[in-house]
Amino acid sequence: MTASTTRRTAAKSRIAAACAIAVAGTMLLAACGDQTKNGSSNSTASAPLADLLPKEIRDKGVIKVGSDIAYPPVEFKDKSGRTVGIDPDIAAAIGKQLGVTLQFENGTFDTLITGLRSKRYDLAMSSMTDTKDRQQGIDSETKKKVGEGVDFVDYFTAGVSIYTRKGDDQGITSWADLCGKKIAVQRGTVSHDLAKDESKKCTGGGKIAIETFDNDLEAQTRLRSGGVDAASSDFPVAAYAVKTSGGGKDFQIVGEQVEAAPYGIAVAKGNDQLTKAVRAALEATIKNGEYGKIISKWGVEAGAVTEAKVNGGS
Predict the structure, then answer these.
(1) Are strands 150-165 and 251-268 parallel, antiparallel or unpaired?
(2) Measured by CB atoms within 10 angstroms of the end CB, which terminus of the chain is less buried, N or C?
(3) Number of other residues whose CB lies within 10 A of the CB of residue 254
(4) What is the DSSP string of 147-168?
(5) What is the CA radius of gyration of the chain?
(6) How far is CA 193 from CA 70, 259, 266, in A?
(7) What is the C-alpha to C-alpha distance for residues 227 and 202, in angstroms, rounded to an integer?
(8) Which residues neighbour 10 within 8 Å (Cβ) at sequence distance 6 or greater?
(9) Distance in angstroms (rounded) separating the CA atoms of residues 268 and 150
(10) What is the mean pLDDT of residues 241-261?
(11) Strand partners, 268
């Protein structure tokens, strides 16, 4: 889930990914095997980068990954209850290089970083945008120091979209058009931040009424029921909802994607060896072509990265 306090330019070139994501809707059951507690493990003996891991993780054979697993197509449960999506597939590829299982554990999005600090998780991988505020442990709204911060290994790029009920756009084509209207967002995301920022700019038309939810699926339900005028989420998620909800009859994207920024795998500050190991493993999957196959399978080529950067967000 994207979160940032620095406005970026609209990512028009990625709008073309909406059609590509539609293709992914037919491939859900082809997703990589579940990387939860029932996931298959990798052998460090055959893993080329196993020696890069901290010894305690290498010995356990498991990296615990905190994730809000309700954000299709990035991470979600399929009909059989398996954790699938873009993030689990990339995590499985990283695990193959390191010889360990990346075990996904479900949590609410706004508690994942604290979960890293408390060592409940080794990593957080949940469509989380790499921002300077998160790197430095700064609250994006108050600008106060709230923690030690995290390091990110960047693995994808995505922006944010607004969507409405299909055929009922309420005249909304941009964030400015939301003044005097109601929007549903997931708590702690850039959609939430943008709504608050834009509401402060509203003048005669009234402020934006913001309804926040623990996950994006709850926000979609609120919009579907007519309780709000619009909803917002990261572009791949919005496009997937438009394609799949009600067989494509429930929603439509309005306006352009904004705030294009990198998703990062978060690691607690001070865990430099783990950060370097994850970066090297991701870089290896990019170079050997496995990363590209995953991105293509889910139809999100427009968000692909060409190298694994650390803390590349702004």
Answers:
(1) antiparallel
(2) C
(3) 18
(4) S--EEEEEEEEEEEEEEEETTB
(5) 19
(6) 20, 11, 20
(7) 21
(8) 159, 256, 257, 258, 260
(9) 5
(10) 92
(11) 150
What phi, psi does 292 have (nearest 5°)? -60, -35
User: Which amino acid, one-letter code, is at 273?
Assistant: Q
Q: Is the pTM of this model over 0.85?
A: no
The pLDDT-based confidence of 20 (bands split at 50, 70, 90) is: very low
110, amino acid identity: D
SS3 1: coil
* Count of C-beta atoms within a 10 Å radius of residue 139: 13
Dig out the tokens for 302 from the structure. 């427009």
Please state the length of the chain. 314
- Separation CA 161–CA 15 (nearest Å): 10
The model's confidence at residue 177, banded by pLDDT at 50, 70 and 90, is very high
Residue 227 pLDDT greater than 90, yes or no: yes
Q: Is the pLDDT of residue 259 over 70?
A: yes
pLDDT digits (tens, 9 = 90+) for 267-305: 999 999 999 999 999 999 999 999 999 999 998 888 899
